[in-house]
Design goal:
6 strands; mainly alpha
Length: about 240
């Protein structure tokens, strides 16, 4: 069976997830069978194109809803897209906080999900609570719904990754990543990319450490510290 791909606003391409669209449509008041039938109709309409934009996908969803259920369901779908309604969750320290789809998306990105897929899953988690009118939930419930969606839509590997990161977030451990390599290969660039994905707030480059050490230690004492990494051999006494 051919696979339908969806191109997001940022240009990233990800698979069309029929289950997620079904849940979105259930939030408009459709039963599961009705929502699944519409999602299946949307897929069958677009699959021959191979890849479509998210705007084109939503346009076909609107057409299918209008022809099958009328303007009331179209209006409800637009309400879902506008993402109205706020969910509060009770943290493990018993404090209340607002559920943020953007922050939850970042947690999903740590599992290796593409940005658009993580965004859709975060939205699906939100819609799950809206559909059940659960406007105050516990953090464990968010994890349960997220794991259930990951298992159903993407398989056990991503669910286990999310479970591992959740355990790490709840613990007191410290994560230290050391990126090693020859000069000029992009260690600092890689570190910055990883830090962004994992929400690591502090990074330190060896170049900065070397500059500080150069200020503290004179060249006469450690000459190799004051030279370039490319010609450090010229400063080292090979006879010693």
């Amino acid at each position: 069976m051919s696979e339908l791909m969806v191109s997001g606003a940022d240009g990233a391409v990800h698979p069309f997830l029929r289950g997620i669209l079904t849940r979105s449509l259930q939030s408009t008041g459709l039963s599961f069978d009705e929502a699944y039938a519409v999602a299946d109709q949307v897929r069958n309409t677009l699959v021959a194109k191979g890849t479509v934009t998210s705007e084109a996908l939503r346009s076909v969803v609107v057409q299918c809803l209008e022809s099958g259920f009328g303007q009331e369901r179209v209006h409800a779908y637009h309400m879902v897209l506008e993402r109205r309604g706020r969910i509060r969750f009770r943290r493990r320290d018993n404090e209340l906080d607002w559920f943020s789809r953007r922050l939850h998306q970042k947690r999903l990105e740590r599992c290796g999900l593409p940005i658009d897929t993580a965004s859709e899953l975060a939205q699906a988690v939100y819609q799950e609570f809206v559909a059940s009118k659960s406007y105050e939930v516990r953090s464990g419930e968010i994890d349960r719904v997220t794991l259930d969606l990951l298992e159903k839509e993407l398989g056990g590997e991503f669910a286990e990754r999310y479970r591992s990161w959740s355990r790490f977030d709840r613990g007191d451990g410290i994560l230290v990543l050391l990126c090693g390599g020859a000069p000029g290969v992009g260690k600092s660039t890689l570190a910055a990319e990883i830090a962004t994905r994992l929400d690591i707030v502090r990074t330190q480059s060896t170049d900065m450490l070397r500059e500080i050490m150069r200020e503290m230690v004179p060249a006469a004492l450690v000459p190799e510290l004051h030279g370039s990494s490319f010609d450090v051999n010229l400063s080292v006494d090979s006879k010693g």
